[in-house]
């Protein structure tokens, strides 16, 4: 048989890999052009971060900001979901969601287009995410990113505030945001900048010991182990801290390099107990030096419901976006960036979550 047509692994409805190594993605391949969103006034554009690896991003800025240099806004680095293997920073679902989120949160946003498995097994996504975060911080702060001169990106340089840097993601993108924050606790960012906040939206975490919400799905562990082995090329087990932070010793939470954390879960999501336990473990660790860990729950909603296309009002989605915006607005970070003129200290207020 032709190895280019003989199936090696069938993971429908996500993708099929053939014996030749060719991957046919069954979803998440369409691309929506950047531009100004009529509904929100948010403007976006696409940029290349590393031509050698293909690392790219879609940048977003809220309406009424461009051309007004005095406006400094939080910097949000966002990682899309898609089981580490499908979708991109340019997909329609994430484009719609981020236009709404950027408008509500008033943040300059970098949506990262990282390399996908299985062609680039995990930890390639983590490496790309870390490189993108360093790029965003360096471009905002005007500092060397470690491999050459500071990147020149006017949206970040003119409107980003390095005292308010956030990382966020949905599903496996939430997993990536967590792992980036863990790396940030061990390795420096340009200018000594710190992550102010981390937002995990229905994060993808699993483990060999099933939690109550995972028991409702037959063969839950078998499927999780099969998928994790596929996207990591068998390098890591299902209890590796990359995918199961609950397996970490309490002392290891000290490496989580953010001051504040927010985890959102959905009442009908089988991984909801993982998100709840994550917040509990973080609060109880005694090792994390952060100030606040917040749990936000949508009862009656499914996994990443906020990415769905809806006609008219969608209250659950609007409420969740408002909660994230409130969490980000309550920041009172103190980041260090030498003489970087974008540093400022903002007043704090309690997030209503």
Q: Shape from CA axes? A: globular
Write out the strand line-up for the largest beta sheet, numbering strands in chain order. Answer: 4-5-7-6-8-9-10-11
Beta-strand content estimate? 15-25%
Between the first and last Cα atoms, what is the distance in angstroms? 57 Å
Mean pLDDT: 91
Class per helix and strand makeup: alpha/beta
Q: What's the Cα radius of gyration?
A: 19 Å
Largest sheet: 8 strands, mixed
Number of strands: 11
Total of DSSP H or I helical runs spanning 4+ residues: 7
Low-confidence stretches: 332-353
Helix content: 25-40%
SSE order = EEEEEEHEHHEHEHEHEH
Description:
There is one protein chain. The chain is built from seven helices and eleven strands. With 353 residues, the protein is an alpha/beta fold. An eight-stranded mixed beta sheet has the order 4-5-7-6-8-9-10-11, with helices on both faces. A three-stranded antiparallel beta sheet has the order 1-2-3, with no helix packed on it. Helix 2 crosses helix 4. Residues 76-306 form the Alpha/beta hydrolase fold-3 domain. This is Alpha/beta hydrolase fold-3 domain-containing protein. It holds the Pfam family Abhydrolase_3.
């Amino acid at each position: 048989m032709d190895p280019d047509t003989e199936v090696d692994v069938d993971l429908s409805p996500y993708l099929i890999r053939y014996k030749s190594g060719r991957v046919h993605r069954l979803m998440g391949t369409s691309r929506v052009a950047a531009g100004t969103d009529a509904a929100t006034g948010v403007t976006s554009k696409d940029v290349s971060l590393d031509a050698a690896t293909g690392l790219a991003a879609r940048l977003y800025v809220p309406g009424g900001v461009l051309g007004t240099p005095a406006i400094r806004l939080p910097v949000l680095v966002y990682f899309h979901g898609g089981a580490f293997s499908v979708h991109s920073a340019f997909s329609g679902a994430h484009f719609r969601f981020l236009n709404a989120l950027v408008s509500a949160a008033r943040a300059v946003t970098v949506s990262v287009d990282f390399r996908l498995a299985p062609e680039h097994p995990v930890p390639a996504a983590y490496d790309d995410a870390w490189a993108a975060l360093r790029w965003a911080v360096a471009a905002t702060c005007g500092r060397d990113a470690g491999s050459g001169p500071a990147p020149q990106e006017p949206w970040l340089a003119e409107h980003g505030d390095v005292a308010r840097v956030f990382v966020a993601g949905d599903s496996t993108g939430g997993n990536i945001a967590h792992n980036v924050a863990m790396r940030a606790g061990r390795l420096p960012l340009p200018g000594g900048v710190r992550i102010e906040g981390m937002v995990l939206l229905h994060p993808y975490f699993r483990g060999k010991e099933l939690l109550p919400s995972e028991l409702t799905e037959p063969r839950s562990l078998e499927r999780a182990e099969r998928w994790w082995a596929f996207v990591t090329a068998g390098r890591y087990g299902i209890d590796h801290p990359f995918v199961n932070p609950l397996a970490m010793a309490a002392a290891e939470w000290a490496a989580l390099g953010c001051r504040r954390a927010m985890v959102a879960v959905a009442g009908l999501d089988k991984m909801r107990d993982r998100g709840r336990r994550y917040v509990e473990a973080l609060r109880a660790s005694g090792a994390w030096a952060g100030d606040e860990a917040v749990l936000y729950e949508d009862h009656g909603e499914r996994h990443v419901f906020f990415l769905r296309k809806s006609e008219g009002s969608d209250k659950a989605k609007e409420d969740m976006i408002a909660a994230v915006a409130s969490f980000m607005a309550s920041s009172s970070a103190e980041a260090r960036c030498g003489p970087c003129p974008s540093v400022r200290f903002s007043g704090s207020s309690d997030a209503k979550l």
